[in-house]
Amino acid sequence: MNVKKDEKRGTWYFVVEAGKDEQGKRKQIFKRGFKTEAEAKREMRKVATQIDENTYVKPTKRTLADFFPEWLQSKSLKLRKHTLEVYTGHVNKHIVPRLGRFELVKITTAQIEKFYIDLAKESELSPRTVLDIHKILKSAFEAAVKRKYVSSNPVKDAETPKVDKKEMSVWDVQEANQFLKVAKEHRLYPAFLLALTTGMRQSEILGLRWKDIDFENETLNVRQTLSHDGKELTVQTKTRTSTRTISLDGRVLETLQKHKRIVMKEMLAIRPIYQNNDLVICTGFGTPILPRNLLRTFYNLIKKAEVPKIRFHDLRHTVATLMLQGEINPKVVKEILGHSDVRITLDIYSHVLPSVHKETAQKYGNMLFNQANSSQ
């Protein structure tokens, strides 16, 4: 490792040993063009430190537009089809048109922050959408760091728009029961019953198969989902922890057994043209129920039941809220819902916990002091 002067050009350069390559050949990093010896030495020490810490990045003119196809291809191994389509849409529509021409190594945190401001003002994107784009960029640059295309992630420290939490709409026990009472005679009743007893997502309910239900042990396994457009059944859930086992109430199992007999009769009646996908919730021909058709039925039943209008996903929130109000351990609620971390459960339903804590304190106080009084 040394600094020398290029007598012909009147500038300084340095050479740093960088170990050996995969073939065992000696590697050197050579940089020239420094105006002073001190400047060359500063850069040499910086490069040497990066080599020791394994953070040195070989200079490249690779642009963000060059990198994204490679990154999206790698993400296709882990992401669900719909999520990958959303990522690709944001990349092609918003990120590449504005940032694609810039070299990865030259993109700065300030540049990223200005990009977010421009998206909000010029493209009129919501804070939520800008935050989604931020998550894509952050993940992409994390991959670029791992692949030694850049030495650090400029997105990590970028300021992001504040996203106000959506006010959660849920039913109380009476409203949930009123809805189920009205829905009971509808063919899709089992779908709504599962939603209000297990907290399963719509895609999980529409992808549920009979082989996923263990009537003997009174459980069901969440293993398959239906895509948002209703065209693709995938043995892949939202996250690793979304694949889970849920215990079922005996009354729910009784409803499912009754529904199974109906489905079997339908299959036998039109066997030559019946498409047997083993689905619990399906059409009379065995094909998946389109999500939009399930929602249409859901909103019609809400109107008939005369209960507050909520989203289908709010049935999941309803289940979690009622469970927490019923003093079911948050860790158990987390496992039923398929959250990856109990902190997610506690964060989403933090509004429920103060009243739960108050009731718990009161009950514990009654138990403790009543016991003390009885012993006197």
How would you characterize the overall build of this protein?
The strands form 3 sheets. Strands 1-2-3 form a 3-stranded antiparallel β-sheet, covered by helices on one side. A hairpin with a 4-residue loop joins strand 4 and strand 5. The protein has 14 helices and 8 strands. Helix 7 packs antiparallel against helix 9 and helix 12 packs across helix 13. It has 376 residues and is mainly alpha-helical. The mean pLDDT is 88. It has helices spanning 37-52, 64-75, 81-99, 109-121, 127-146, 173-183, 189-198, 202-207, 250-269, 291-305, 313-325, 330-337, 342-348, 353-375, and strands at 2-6, 11-20, 26-34, 213-214, 219-222, 225-226, 233-234, 244-247. It has 3 domains: 2-52; 64-146, DNA polymerase, domain 1; 173-355, Intergrase catalytic core (hpI Integrase, Chain A, Orthogonal Bundle), CATH 1.10.443. It is elongated, with a radius of gyration of 29 Å.
User: At the first level of CATH, what is the class of the largest domain?
Assistant: Mainly Alpha
Low-confidence parts lasting 5 or more residues at pLDDT below 50?
none
Q: Helical content, roughly? A: 40-55%
How many strands, which pairing sense, and closed or not: the largest β-sheet? 3 strands, antiparallel
Main sheet strand line-up: 1-2-3
Q: Give, in order, the helices and strands.
A: EEEHHHHHHHHEEEEEHHHHHH
